[in-house]
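Long-time lurker, finally posting.

We've been working with ATP-dependent protease HslVU (ClpYQ), peptidase subunit (Kineosporia mesophila) and I want a structural starting point before designing mutants. I don't trust myself to interpret raw outputs, so I'm hoping someone here can both generate the structure tokens and explain anything notable. Sequence follows.
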Amino acid sequence: MTCIVGITDGHTVTIGGDSAGSDGWHVAVRSDTKVFQVGPYIMGFTTSYRMGQLLRYSLEIGEPDTWDVDRFMATTFIDAVRQCLTDGGYAKAEDGREEGGDFLVGIHGRLYVIGSDYQVGHTMAGYSAVGSGYLVALGSLHSTATSLIDSRQRTVMALEAAVELTDGVRPPFTVLQAT
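Top reply, 14 upvotes:
Generated this for you. Predicted structure of ATP-dependent protease HslVU (ClpYQ), peptidase subunit:
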């Protein structure tokens, strides 16, 4: 249970997340954040705290070494994530298909959505959300898309909406920005 929200204006990426940890029956507010920076990347994860810990502390990846950042993310970056999650004992493999988890990544003003099958999404809307509160957060982000509200405040508003209308999403919120 989680809500991770991301917004980009093409120059600055904002990612925010809640602090709930849940097993479906119990919700605990955790002090280890779901949103963090690793080198030039800001990330926010859902699915598993273990996955997030591996991304935060074990992922070794440099900056994109090409002008084609989308290609870099879909190949070099994902290859490093797959290796990190496999080495950390988190990645699952069944019938020849690997599975990780869902998270957002911001780099060079771009916002990417990484799926559990390691697909790399790059939304045209300029915002996205993952986790159990994602639909509520997306509604909030859509309703403020043409407003003069800054991206940090829009992120908090989307997370507050998810807290109000979704089980398992709790403050405090962590919000980071990077260019």
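Before you design anything, note these points.
Residues 4-178 form a domain with the Glutamine Phosphoribosylpyrophosphate, subunit 1, domain 1 fold (CATH 3.60.20.10).
The CA atoms of residues 40 and 63 lie 7 Å apart.
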